[in-house]
Amino acid sequence: MTERQKKLLEIIVKEYVKYSKPISSKNLVKKLSLSSATIRNEMNELEKKGYLIKPHISGGRIPTEKAYKVYISSLEEVDVPINVCVSDFREMTKILAELSGGFAFGGIRQDFHQSGFSNLLKEAEHDEDFSIETRKIMEEFENHFDELFEDISDNQTRVFIGKESPFKKTKKISLIVSGCNTPEQGLIGLLGPMRMKYDYNISLINKLKQLIEQDYE
Hints:
217 residues; alpha+beta; Arc Repressor Mutant, subunit A; Beta-Lactamase; two-stranded antiparallel sheet; 9 helices; 7 strands
């Protein structure tokens, strides 16, 4: 992939996350010093390489899982000011759900908390496939939680996109999860649509994790 294609792909991902609509070459002319024809040719190349798909015959393109992986690999953390006290995992989970707009969970193995399921339901109102995946995930979440996250034991923040998720048969949901360095190994995680603000959500999780770890020192 050329540097120009990387830049184009980054802009397409950001625009799609923001507007949730297929992106056309005309949408991007003002953001790049390129003609519509040149952008269209580059988008064709990105589509051939599997980074974009065209959901409709006449219309723009949307990023694939492969595109999100490239985008995430080059992300830098953003500043996430949190002006509230985070004293326990219950409070941390609630704050994560409120600030991210996703479904948050956190705690230690024997004492987990969750918040924000209604956020997933709002997203599901506009997407039947997302709705079906959400219901399946909640069944797995409640019945097999420890099994799903038994390998998440380090403090590295990890991102699972679509089919990479430990949840079975998901295509439209992403997961961000990290272990917490607490006396009893803790965990913090976020479920949301693949079309999410990864830079903000990753930074938010890292900030909350830092605050909860400080509280346990």
